Amino acid sequence: MTKFAFPSHPLLLGFEPLERLVERTARAGADGYPPFNIELIEPNRFIITLAVAGFTSDDIAITLEDRQLTIRGQQTDPGDERVFLHRGIATRQFRRVFALAEGVEVGGARLDNGLLEITLERREPETVVRTIPITRAP
Question: Which among 12, 33, 53, 54 is least buried, having the fewest CB atoms inside 10 angstroms?
Answer without folding.
Answer: 53
